[in-house]
Amino acid sequence: MKKVLYILVIIFFCTCQKQEVANAFSTPSFELIKTKDIYVAASPISLKFKGTQIAFLSITNSLGSTLIKPKIKEGFLNFEFPKTFTTKSGLCTWNLIYNQKIYKKGTLTIIPNFRDGVKIASFLGPRSISAGGTDFSMFVVSPTDIYDNPVLDSTIISNTYQFGSSIEESAVKVKNGISWQNIFSPTKTGRILITASYLEHKSKEMTTIVYPALPEEFKIYYTRNHPYADGNQVISFSTDIIRDEFQNIISDGTLVTFSIINSKGMRLETMGTTINGKATGQLLHPDKAEKWMVTAYILGAAKSESINLEFKPAVKDFNITFSENGRKIALENIQSFMGQYIPDGLIVTLRLLDKNGLVITTKRTSTRLGKAKFELPLDFHPNGTYDLSIETAGILKKQKLILK
Amino acid sequence: MLPMQKTNVLLVLALFIGLAFHGSSIFFTLESTYDALIHLFFADHYAQSWFEPWDYRWYTGFTVQGYPPLAHQSIAILSFIGGLKFGLYTVALIAIVLFITGAYRFGLLITGNRKIAGYTSILAVFSSTFIETLHLFGQLPSIVGLSVLLHALPEIYSWIKTGRIRYLATSLSLIAVTVTSHHVTPIFGMVFFIFPLIGMVIMDASRDKVKSNKDISFKVFWSQFKKLFWRIMLFGITSLTLIVFCILPYWINSKKNPITQVPIPHGSRDNFLEVTSSGLVFFLIPWGILLFLLPYIFYRFYSKRYLFFGLSFTILAILGTGGTTPIPLKLLGETAFNILTLDRFTLWATIMALPIFGEFVYRMVQGDLKATLQRNLGAVYHRILGGCLASGILLMVIFTMSLNYFRPAQPKKIKVLPIVNFLSQDSHDQWRYLPLGFGDQMAWLSAQTNAMTVDGNYHSARRLPELTTRAIERLENSKFRGVEGIGSLQQFLTVPEKYNLKYVFSNDKFYDPILFFSGWQRLQQLENGIMVWEKLNVPPLPKIIPKDDVSKGLKIMWGIIPLITVILAFIFNIQYVWYRVLKNRRLPEGPFLKYAINYTIFSKSLIRINHLWALIMLCLFGFGIYKSYLTNATQFSPTNVVMSYYDALDFKEFKRAYSYLNPDAGVELSQYMLEVSVTDGILSSYAKLNAIDVQIIEQNDSLAKTKVSTYWITPLEKINKVFYHTIVKKGRLWYLEPSKPKNDLPPDQLLSSNTTSFFNQGRRRITTQQTHHEDVLKQPVLEVLQAKLVKHQGSYSIIGEVQNVDDIPADVVIKGTLYNDMNHELANYSAKYHMKHKLMPKETTTFKIDFEGIAWLSTKDTIPPTFDPDQFTPVSLAEQPTKFNLQCAGNTAITDLYKQIAVQELEFTPNKISGTLFNAGIQEVTIPQLLFSYYDNRKELIWVDNHFLEEGVRIQRKQFFEYEPVDLSDIEVIFSSLEYCFINGLPNASISEKVFPKRDWSHSKEQLQAFKGKTYEFIRVQTNSYIGNPN
User: Fold this and answer.
1) A-to-B residue pairs, Cβ atoms closer than 8 angstroms
2) Is B840's CB within 8 Å of A255's CB?
3) Closest alpha carbon within chain A to B958
4) A126: cis peptide before it, omega within 30°?
5) Helix (H) or strand (E) holding B5
6) Which of A66-75, A381-390, B646-655, B684-693 is the most confident on average?
7) Could you say which of A156, A180, B460, B1004 is the most buried, measured as most Cβ atoms within 10 Å of its Cβ?
């Protein structure tokens, strides 16, 4: 323990003494050997001082500071700036420091070096805009030398952009290291290619797509094979070419909703997406006589005029036959508009009601070759008198049924 | 020089056969066991960073200090020689050797007879409980721990008996190895193996004091106990200290992160009589042939010397019965019962019974039992009995080994390399991933990659409340946990941003619909058939991820102690090992050898009782088989045939299903298969039958009408569907009447369709650099048309309508946040099913955000006990949400843009909306979805609901739907404003002004359908479609 104490005391005294010695030096003198104040980036910079004591040079630029050691030769201190400092344009201040005191200070200016090459960083966004002149993409250009030093303010950058057959050029001044320009959309759709140049150097090509503006009112049509409600043909609704206010065809994939009101006031709906401005939506023919009113929407933007259409009944009548005991019921001869069998799949609904008019059984089947069959097995339907109703293609038939 | 000890031929034989049999078969079984790959993953962790206990790859980070490391570290050390799997198999081989020799030494300890010990070791090789633990469960650490414990027992006996300090050293060194390989084994081993062993030592010491076993009185016993007390205490205290010290970090971790996991159902806790599959795996197989010998085992265990083992054996046997009797629950208490897997008790009981079994076989083969049997029942009977016993053992071995073959516990082996490559390409590992339907192979995948997943395979280590509050094993197999599992998965898929979860690897198409309707999209199918799904708008993982650090001291302890215990155990025991191998010096005889008994007379009444017992067991088996035949006799009754039919449908065994149909109905198999193949939809392609209830409405001798209520679990919702079937009797069998196929014919044979398709190049230049700014697409602009905070049935929802106002299709993510009056955030969640996630240009969708369990900031009081995806649990909050914030993000969508589902017909009755959909395009829609929006008399949106159709819509065909409108009489609009709505981070108002300045608001109002309901006047129906197999 004692030893440690001694050592500590000795160390303490040693340190105290050293400081005193340091402070005891007389005032040194340094003299700057005058050189130039402005340098081009990447050219070697060195400062020379006349003096004997070993001083340090602290240099600071916009990125940071460092301390450099001199090379001493014949009473001169020669400070060579490191490359990271010589390549950075802007102000570079230096302080000659000796024993924690500044003895000399000064400032150098380093200017960008465009002889070694130019890099043009360019940015464009958004990459798509709407036609019509209100929407725009911003083109930002930041030319630098190869050391990444920006050009000086008010440097002229020339922007060139192409749209359709026109190629235009404009000059933009750099401010704070960048130049920017808003490229407003033309009234036509297409793509705008933009590039920038500075001195003989070019930027790469940037693109912004001009999409059409909002769609305008349009018309719709329908096509169908026949006007009969056979429930088995496709009716398709289509729009004319939908355009925006500048007569551009609206973009592919735009959703058009065909909204249909039928005779009962129900709203049916089919959708289509546009290709070359035209959208098509499809529905099946109804299976009973109907009147439809169709309107198409591009929600919030455009709407078509409504069109009306009518479906004539395809099935006019059908026969019901019963087996002897009344348990096998068949619909026969369900004919379509030309007397042909109605295409398979027409839904037939049978309801069996008791004497009080309550539905006991509801059975559904679909037609095959113009026929539909029902069976009422004894196990579930005891003998007796029932009311029977059969409905298909909008035709309802009612009659008494005696099961034996 | 003393004569050399004879090599025990039976032990050598056991080792030889054991290594040949198990050592070669592990290569075909181990990787498809439940646990082996988990241990492999842990080993991979140690191989990568030995001293760092934190692993980021599972559960958003967890500590490996939650499981004793010896087995894992051993695999890791060996992996440096020949890779992870080399390590795994080497450790497994070592475990086999340790187990067989351990069984030998345990047999020797119990019986004191080398022959019997030899028989014990041979029986150990073929014991069904060992086969199951190794080849079915893959519980390597447990086997190693137990085997080393068996090795420790003779040493402990010797220490207490002789008091020689070297025995204390050997026993403690072995206990330390046990602890570092498995934590539960020494703790329960203390109770169930060491306590009875101590009892046996005292009993033997007492025996030394008296002339015969009969003279051992309690007094003698007590005096011997007092004499040996300090040895017992010394051993007890030091071993306890070792148990604490050797895995100290484990105990500290358990204290710091107590297991908050809610109990996860385990088959070993089932009532084995009700859940027969659990009974098979956790009772019948481990007990195996021992079941027939129970009277003998109990008789022997309750002899004076083994009395304590008898007690312990009884308790173990009872605890192993799980939920069959209420005793285990009462003995263990609720907590322990729900945390422990009770199969380990059966494992210990059967291992404990091995020496007695060995003794039995010895007596049967060459002892007094043979003599008695031959004398009384004849030599032939003895041989038959012996043959039965041998074939019983063989049968159990073959049955257990083949179980995995007939009832695979795991999905087919997946080639993980394509997934590993995918994850390492193109910075995909900067996001988390989630495997679905991988089984335990997910651990192998995790071990191969450094990418992280939110899931994991060691549920005690979980920290996310979303997981710990759910009784599910893994997200990966959540469908097997029914509604709760799917519910938990949904939460991760709905707000993947929270977990930086971007990729899902799906090995099970069951999960596809839930992914689609939660807003995920298919990216590509890998060459191994795994479908990759991705979610847009998920931020990558931050560079620094938080972790729970532990002190350096603990890390070093964890890293070096386990292997040191092995080295020390070697040093202490090695001399014996060499003696055994070289036989150059006579081994000190174990003090227990002198308590071997002479087997001279086999009690006749025991033979009788055991015969009777075996007969009863045979009858029970027979009855069980007959019972299962009756319930499975497919066409025995109308109920059976319906059940079998639906079972066949559920397992997609259509040929079997067809065999239940009335053969006279005129439907041919080819016709039936055709009809089945053309039905698609959530019910036929994505549902799992959860329960079925068959009700017979009317029945006579030859005909029955049944009402079948089926309960299906689908990835999206529970579906309860009622079917009616007519059942007819032909001869002695019942048959279903087939339903008629649909006659609906599509109009066109050949049709064409033009659609706009999109493609996104992504990164155009091949570079590992961050994506160039000119390759980044603009986010499509959306506009919120309306948004409201509403309260319905006590829960809060944000509803509204959003439109894609851009010129390209958009993938839409809507995240809502609720605030109270004090602008304090209460909850946030994203829209799940109640919206169309993909919008074409100018398309609108209504949406609804429900706030589920994890949405709320304090999860404690809000999480419902069981999660039901359909049913919403109202949240009781002290604070009332009064406003909301809506963040909508659009991203360019290029897939799932099918919009050709039309509403063909619509019909209203007061309580039902029915109609028909028509598929006008050329893609088969697997799951059509209808979004119903409700509007009040001012045509203001007040509610959004959805409805999935159970069947798909085929091309140019119709599909009917029925929907019950909701009762909105208690609907309350709390806040309605677009002020806090943002699109891609920009205020909605500015977008509205710029992109859609002259919006015509009348359009959306014109499209409403008048429908009078409770507090609403109008509705709107929108369609959305999921295509299972896009062309």
Assistant:
1) 160
2) yes
3) A284
4) yes
5) none
6) A66-75
7) B1004
Whole-complex ipTM:
0.83
Residue B918 with chain A: CB contacts under 8 Å: 270, 282-284
Given a cut of 50, the residues of chain B with pLDDT beneath it are: 1-4, 858-876
DSSP state of B67: S
Contact at CB, A297 and B705, closer than 8 angstroms? no
User: What pLDDT score does A24 carry?
Assistant: 41
pTM for this model (two decimals): 0.86
Return the sign of the alpha-carbon dihedral for residues A373, A378, A383, A389: negative
**Number of domains comprising chain A:** 4
DSSP code at position B283? I
Taking CB atoms and an 8 Å limit, are B902 and A283 in contact across chains? yes
Of the candidates B846, B776, B875, B837, the one whose C-alpha atom is nearest the C-alpha of residue B1020 is: B846
Question: Does any CB of chain A come closer than 8 Å to the CB of residue B842?
Answer: yes
Residue A330 resides in a domain: yes
- State whether B956 and A255 contact (CB < 8 Å): no
Domain of residue A255, CATH code: 2.60.40.10
| CA distance linking residue B845 with residue B836, whole number of Å | 6
DSSP strand E in B303-437: where?
Answer: 432-436
**Measured between alpha carbons, how far is B472 from B536 in angstroms, rounded to an integer?**
27
Q: Which of A194, A211, A228 is the last residue of a domain?
A: A211
Q: What is the pLDDT of residues B147-171, one digit of tens each?
A: 999 999 999 999 999 888 889 999 9
Of all residues in chain B, the one with the smallest CA distance to A294 is: B1007
Query: Do A106 and A45 fall within a single domain?
Result: yes
Question: Chain A: residue nearest B739 by CA?
Answer: A365
DSSP strand pairing (A384-392 vs A395-403): antiparallel
Pick the residue from chain A with its C-alpha nearest to B805: A214
B811 touches chain A (CB under 8 A): no
Same domain assignment for residues A253 and A192: no
B745 contacts in A (CB within 8 Å)?
232, 343-345
Q: Does B906 touch chain A (CB under 8 A)?
A: yes
CA distances from B140 to B84, B182, B311, B809 (A): 14, 9, 28, 53
pLDDT confidence of residue B866 = 38
The tokens for B722 are 């009622």
Which structural domain, as residue segments, surrounds residue A126?
118-211
Q: How far is B444 from chain A (nearest CA, A)?
A: 44
Residue A19 domain-assigned (yes or no): no
Indicate whether A260 and A305 sit together in one domain: yes
Name the residue in chain B with its Cα closest to that of A132.
Answer: B995
Is residue B392 less than 8 Å (CB to CB) from chain A?
no
Whether residue B747 and residue A211 make contact (CB cut-off 8 A), yes or no, is: no
CA distance B199 to B223: 13
> Is B923 within 8 Å of chain A by CB?
no
The domain boundary residue, chosen from A181, A211, A241: A211
Residue with tokens 């008048």: B1010
- Asked if A282 and B900 come within 8 Å (Cβ–Cβ), the reply is yes
Q: Which residue would you say has higher pLDDT here, A264 or B485?
A: A264
Task: Report the distance separating Cα A298 and Cα A277, nearest Å.
Answer: 12
For chain B, give every domain's residue range: 9-409+589-617, 417-432+445-529, 633-736, 777-1026
Residue A193 lies in a domain: yes
Q: Which CATH class is domain B633-736?
A: alpha beta
Task: Based on the fold, state whether residues A304 and A349 are members of the same structural domain.
Answer: no
Residue of chain B whose Cα is closest to the Cα of A346: B744
C-alpha to C-alpha distances, B821 to B634, B719, B850, nearest whole angstrom: 64, 40, 20
Instruction: Tell whether A14 is covered by a domain.
Output: no
Neighbours of B192 (CB within 10 A): 21
Report B:751-810 residues touching A (Cβ under 8 A). Answer: 754-756, 758, 773-774, 777-778, 785, 803, 806-809
Of B966, B964, B958, which Cα lies nearest the Cα of B928? Answer: B958
Whether A102 and A130 map to the same domain: the answer is no
